[in-house]
UniProtKB/TrEMBL annotation:
InterPro entries: Ntn_hydrolases_N, Peptidase_T2. It comes from Winogradskyella marina. It holds the Pfam family Asparaginase_2. SUPFAM superfamilies: N-terminal nucleophile aminohydrolases (Ntn hydrolases). This is Isoaspartyl peptidase/L-asparaginase.
Amino acid sequence: MNTFSIAIHGGAGTLVKGMMTAELEAQYKSVLQIALNAGYKILEDGKTAVEAVEVAVKLLENSHLFNAGKGSVFTATETHEMDASIMDGKTLNAGGVSLITGIKNPVSLARDVMEKSEHVFLAGDGAMQFAKELNYTLEDASYFYDEFRHNQWLEIKDTDSFQLDHSTKKDSKFGTVGAVACDQDGNIAAATSTGGMTNKKWGRVGDSPMIGAGNYANNKTCAISCTGSGEFFIRGVVAYDVACLMEHKNMSLEDASNEVIHKRILEIGGDGGLIAVDTKGNIAMPFNTEGMYRGQKSSDGIEEVAIYG
Ligand code: ASP
């Protein structure tokens, strides 16, 4: 039996220790642990990596703590527009959705795009029409309302800024969520889900739903889920770049992930992190920010939930 493993993230960023209370830190860790255990259990039961990443991401989407699903940030027009994607490394099938509203679990809609449509990426009204045809129920705005997120938005709503000031004085983080997994058959998958950037406008879409940028899986190399400054992750084609370094330069998962996060993305001005797994169940979780909400668990006995570097 292949070593099976799962890694999850709840976003990277400037997480100032002083601004995090012990109680809040415990809450974050508890949700991460629950999502990690649920995804791991799927793998332990012999189910697929695709199922494991969907289950783990759904649980993170259901928490108001992370910027995805329930906890999604506010757009410039005080709404929520969510993006998500999923990819199966065995078949290279993939699904992505962007600019969707009212959907409790965007990752499941992305999986439905992958499995129940002939397409890879659906956006906006069309994606919502697809959800309607599959009988998704829509949550109203109050489900997604969170006072903390609303205050984040109020602070910058009349500016052209579309993310929180990334200074060391402020607790500024990218709360996107994601999961990567390797199952007992050595198949890998990745899923990513986000509310994007606070105060985003004009139908802004980040890297998270884009196959190759914020999310990628290929049994030849690795499965990757990213978090960070999306505009730079798109330009750097970050998730695919890690896979390319492994495929064409024969780099290990660890070396390729480090090269991209500690060198290549910094060179073009981006910051953030990623989680990665290969078909042997190895995991890498580099980030170039102060912290990244993260967890990993493998049948080799590795188990960790952490926030800071
Ligand atoms: N990468 C996401 C985006 O640009 C943000 C995040 O990681 O939180 O939409």
